[in-house]
């Protein structure tokens, strides 16, 4: 019985040693890569997929509010593009000096003058 | 069962975090786009009646102020180009506790809005907000300086 086994085993092992497994390994490798790619895609989908929340319709008003905010924020900062008044000085305050404002549209100059300031030493 | 719930909760929190981070990024990018850098020229000038020399680069200031004041001498003390970015004040020291602080707080198609503070020993002696268009100059003067007065000429280029 043992002799019979050796008779079968020896040529089988020899044939297996000579066999080219390159294409088999290539197929296995491709299969593993495809599986990895689909697993990565699945994880990306799980990150981005908010469909269960949409099914509940909870996120719809929040998303709409966010989109409106995104559109409105730059407009809020820009607020007005043209002014009805040509005035240059929007606000002025001095607790220590009397202030004069002079605006000349022709010369494109605005003068803000502080009166009765205390004496100051010159810049060296 | 409990473990599955906890996992689901964590996943939901991660999704919400991702969503709000995305929104925040868009908001930040949109605001920074609105506030581009604005080059602001600040000239610090001493005007007096001592002598009659007028700095050649100050003929425009002399022409503009000539109708209001009789200064015979205009001396340029400093000529600065300040790159202003939205809501970030830039302080220009003038002399011994005196300084000028300029802040860009609004930017429009044809104008910029500046907040200008003149300080003395940390206290505001002038607090003003002006709107400047291309080519317009704001002259802020009056504080005494030696024999004359000091004038700040502010203009923006954008």
How is this fold's topology laid out?
The complex is a heterodimer of chains A (124) and B (158).
Chain A (H helix, E strand, L loop, with lengths): L1 H17 L3 H27 L2 H6 L2 H20 L10 E5 L4 E7 L4 E7 L9
Antiparallel strand pairs in A: 2-3
Chain B lengths: L1 H33 L3 E11 L10 H7 L7 E12 L5 E6 L2 E10 L3 E10 L2 E11 L3 E9 L2 E10 L1
Antiparallel strand pairs in B: 1-2, 1-8, 3-4, 4-5, 5-6, 7-8
How is this structure best summarized?
Chain A has helices at 2-18, 22-48, 51-56, 59-78; strands spanning 89-93, 98-104, 109-115. With 124 residues, chain A is of the alpha+beta class.
Supply the key terms.
heterodimer; A: about 120 residues; alpha+beta; 3 strands; B: about 160 residues; 2 domains; 4-stranded antiparallel beta sheet; 2 helices; 8 strands; elongated; disordered N terminus
Sheet-strand content of chain A, in percent, reads 15-25%
Q: How many helices of chain A? A: 4
Question: Biggest interface pair, residues each?
Answer: A-B, 46 and 57 residues
Number of strands of chain B: 8
Rounded Rg of chain B = 24 Å
What would the average pLDDT of chain B be, to the nearest integer? 80
Overall average pLDDT of chain A: 74
Stretches of chain B where pLDDT is under 50 for at least 5 consecutive residues are 1-6
Biggest sheet strand line-up of chain B: 2-1-8-7
């Amino acid at each position: 019985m043992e002799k019979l086994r050796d008779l079968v085993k020896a040529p089988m092992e020899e044939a297996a040693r000579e066999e080219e497994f390159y294409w088999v390994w290539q197929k296995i490798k491709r299969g593993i890569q495809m599986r990895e790619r689909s697993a990565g895609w699945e994880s990306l989908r799980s990150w981005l997929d908010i469909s269960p929340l949409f099914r509940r319709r909870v996120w719809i008003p929040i998303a709409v509010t966010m989109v409106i905010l995104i559109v409105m924020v730059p407009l809020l900062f820009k607020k007005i593009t043209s002014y009805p008044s040509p005035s240059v000085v929007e606000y002025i305050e001095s607790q220590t000096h009397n202030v004069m404002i002079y605006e000349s549209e022709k010369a494109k100059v605005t003068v803000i003058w502080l009166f009765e300031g205390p004496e100051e030493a010159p810049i060296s | 069962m409990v473990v599955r719930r906890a996992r689901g909760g964590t996943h939901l929190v991660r999704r919400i975090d991702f969503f709000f981070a995305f929104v925040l990024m868009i908001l930040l990018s949109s605001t920074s786009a609105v506030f581009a850098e604005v080059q602001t020229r600040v000239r610090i000038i001493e005007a007096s009646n001592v002598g009659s020399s007028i700095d050649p680069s100050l003929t425009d200031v002399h022409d503009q102020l000539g109708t209001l004041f009789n200064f015979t001498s205009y001396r340029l003390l400093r000529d600065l180009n300040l790159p202003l970015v939205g809501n970030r004040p830039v302080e220009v020291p003038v002399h011994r506790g005196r300084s000028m602080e300029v802040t860009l707080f609004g930017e429009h198609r044809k104008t910029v809005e500046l907040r200008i503070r003149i300080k003395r020993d940390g206290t505001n002696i002038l607090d003003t907000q002006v709107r400047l268009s291309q080519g317009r100059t704001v002259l802020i003067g009056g504080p005494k300086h030696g024999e004359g007065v000091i004038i700040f000429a502010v203009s923006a280029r954008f």
